[in-house]
Design goal:
The structure holds 2 protein chains of 2 kinds. By secondary structure, chain A is an all-beta fold. Chain A is 0% helix and 51% strand. Chain A contains no helices and 12 strands. In chain A, the strands form 3 sheets. In chain A, strands 2, 5, 6, 10, 11 and 12 form a 6-stranded mixed beta sheet that branches. In chain A, strands 3-9-8-7 form a 4-stranded antiparallel beta sheet, with no helix packed on it. A two-stranded antiparallel sheet of chain A has the order 1-4. In chain A, a hairpin with a 4-residue loop joins β8 and β9. Chain A is globular. The termini of chain A are far apart. In chain B, the strands form 2 sheets. In chain B, strands 2, 4, 5, 6, 9, 10 and 11 form a 7-stranded mixed beta sheet that branches. In chain B, strands 1-3-8-7 form a 4-stranded antiparallel beta sheet, with no helix packed on it. In chain B, a hairpin with a 2-residue loop joins β5 and β6. Chain B contains no helices and 11 strands. Chain B is mainly β. The chains are: A mainly beta, B mainly beta. At the A-B interface, β6 and β11 of A face β4, β5, β9 and β10 of B.
């Protein structure tokens, strides 16, 4: 079965510093990986996806993610964090047959001024 | 271009009651998926509708049922509500394009269901 793991419940970073939110995956075959962000009392907003191609994927709001097949990881990164980036981040993998998404447990990002 | 819209935004029910949640997909999308997000958890897949049929189902009991209409909108029905059904219910839409599309799902803001 497809699954993802987010090992950190919370990540703290100071504004202006680089941030990394970790995700590892377990899949049969080639992975289709996604990152979503959730602000309080809102739904999930799509940030970026990896399907195939370059291992560095660029997404919305200055976020990017690095796909590493040997480490089965898909970490979310941003060179310079903003206070407004504080939110809940979810990594997800898509089911092979359909469009069902399997989500991780989420990582809360807190960016301090 | 309207995104995914869900109604109502909040709902309070008591145990044993029944509830219907509604979702209108993003313009141009034809596939609707429903997810349950319990407090402090990631979303869990309930089921997916395409061409007015349930195409895939997660590990949820038969108390959870759904429907998709010809205009692609969808309803989620939950019968015999339990306290554990309290959660944020998210609807996501996408373009099937043969069901192996690489396009991301777009989510609504959800319906917060509280069971007393």
């Amino acid at each position: 079965a497809q699954s993802v793991a987010q090992p950190e419940d919370q990540v703290n970073v100071a504004e202006g510093n680089p941030l990394t939110v970790k995700c590892t995956y377990s899949v049969s075959g080639n992975p289709y990986l996604f990152w979503y962000v959730q602000y309080p009392n809102r739904g999930l907003q799509f940030l970026l996806k990896y399907i195939t191609g370059d291992n560095l994927v660029k997404g919305s709001y200055g976020f990017e993610a690095e796909f590493n097949k040997s480490q089965t990881s898909f970490h979310l990164k941003k060179p310079s964090a903003l206070v407004s980036d504080s939110a809940l981040y979810f990594c997800a993998v898509r089911d092979l047959s359909f469009q069902k998404l399997v989500f991780g447990t989420g990582t809360r990002l807190l960016v301090s001024p | 271009d309207a995104g995914v819209t869900q109604s109502p935004t909040h709902l309070i029910k008591t145990r044993g009651q029944q509830v219907t949640l509604r979702c209108s997909p993003k313009s141009g999308h034809d596939t609707v998926s429903w997810y349950q997000q319990a407090l402090g958890q990631g979303p869990q897949f309930i089921f997916q509708y395409y061409e007015e049929e349930e195409r895939q189902r997660g590990n949820f009991p038969d108390r959870f049922s759904g429907h998709q209409f010809p205009n692609y909108s969808s309803e989620l029905n939950v019968n015999a509500l339990l306290l554990g059904d309290s959660a944020l219910y998210l609807c996501a839409s996408s373009l099937a394009a043969g069901m192996r599309s690489n396009q991301p799902q777009h989510f609504g803001d959800g319906t917060r269901l509280s069971i007393l």
